[in-house]
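User: Hello, can you help with two protein structures?

Assistant: Certainly.
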Amino acid sequence: MLSGAVVTYFNETAPKELRGAMASSYQVGLVCGICVSTCVNLAAKDMTDSGAYRISIGIQFLWVLILAIGIYISPETPRWYVSQGRHDEAADALSSFLGPDPTSSRVQMDLSELIDSYNKEHSGAWGDCFTGGLGRGSNLRRTMLGLMIQLGQQITGINFMFYYGTTFFLQTEMPHPFILVIGITIVNAGFCLVSFWTIENVGRRPLLIWGAASMAFFQLIVVSLFPNII
């Protein structure tokens, strides 16, 4: 539930000129957290008592506490206030995110655009997401593109490497399995950091195309070099 809400929260609160970069920060935080967790696992791997797993699990409570406090003090999104017909509170929320006074022209212009956008989006029904065939500009095509991109991201198997990579490398007798997984997470985090700049300066579509092509290329290399592990 939280994973689904975070990106929506960014999209509904970030200034237009920073929306892409701020949405990317969600993935950056995710992969950096995975990188830190693999380092903790490396530090605890030689323990022979219950600390080998208690430390890894226990440290997570610290981040949960920080997250819970952060969620509690975070303001509601202007879009949600608009959906409830509470336009004055939506202006206050916009002011807290953008900086200017609620009565300023910048806030009032954004509020007017938000109200118009909300009214247009709710003039149809959920079923409209699956109408129009697969032709250019159809709703069904947009829906399928979104679903297939997300599916493609997961079906690459990267989450398997994050969560079970150490066990996998141990079973295949690869040297330094913990270090290998840390290396994978560092590469992932590094390229996510690069996306802060590229997503606004290169564009979404080129990143998707070249990112997918690069992943396919390097996966073929892995299969070619290590045929005994598949």
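That covers the first. Now for the second protein you mentioned:
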Amino acid sequence: MVIKVIMDNKLTVDDGLDLDQFWALDQQAHENNCFNDGTKVALGIRMCDECVFDELGITVSHPWDHHDPKDMQNWRRLYNDRAEQIVGRRLLPEAIKPADAVFPEIKRIGEVFGGKYTWQNYTEWLEKGAASYKELEAVLERVETLDYREFMLPPGWEREKQRIFDTYGLKPQTLRHVRGPVTLACSIFGDEDLIYLILDEPDLARRFSAAITHAILEMAKVMDEEAGVTPVTWPGFSFADDCCCLMNPEMYELFGYPVLKAVFDHYSPLPGQGRFQHSDSDMGHLLQILGRLNLTGVNFGPNVLTPEIRRYLPQARIVGCIAPFAFSRNDRAELLRQTRRDCLDGMKYGGVEIATAGSINYGSSLHSLRYIMSLIQEYGRG
């Protein structure tokens, strides 16, 4: 329930930042995957709905809770009015999709492996799908023989798909992003159990890994057919694999790497086609292996920094090393230290986009974003 909305008039600061010039240079900085001969560093922060409430003084039960779409649309508009004055851009989408333009929900990869998505403490969790090696074998046998189209698409899908297309001209979304193999497996089987599986039953672990590859490719194929695209006409793929930090290099080589290699080879076979990995954890010990995947973009943990990343990933756009809580706590001393560091690294190594190493959280303010922009202007412009 909304209790209050407070707006103040202190929208700008005298920091010498020319907003029009900043955004013109930022557009140039994003060209060529942010590689521009060390002359400009790009800004990757664009904020999110979670930031709206604190910025506007809106009191709600929880920022992650469900909010009425019309309320959210109005709050985004107010937020964007403020953002336009402070940082010179309307940052959040204001349009809302009509309720009858939303496609029926399809089954997701966790459900393919017998897991169940639940909503607890204002966030989504994927519950286990197997609790023993025997149960895991049964799950894998099912995954390997599943009719993915029949399993994924709900009753009445074709009718609804056609109606939405006829009414709104919309097609279903492709599947080009998925929970990474280690994170998925930790949810389905448990983190400690997965480690023991790799150590004690490596053949079963390899089968688990191969089943994840099979599931991703089959699910993506179904959605390609529904969207009317192919890997050639719609290339690129990305993973979010925070839990990969739990694997040592040998474990990751056995379990995680084969999944990414197979999927990237299918959906991004040509140089420059999107190969993105998000892992906001201390997984620097895996960089040498990830370097063999020719990644074009990465977003790693705040302790995995540009010089180390660039050593193994020469062509990857490095999206953010700023610690998310430094931003959400609006800690100017840390924002100065970390943004300056990343700007100087970006000017030296190229291909750096200033952003957080992970999510943008409640409390991250537009004034802090403007402060980061002013630091980019000072340290990230040649």
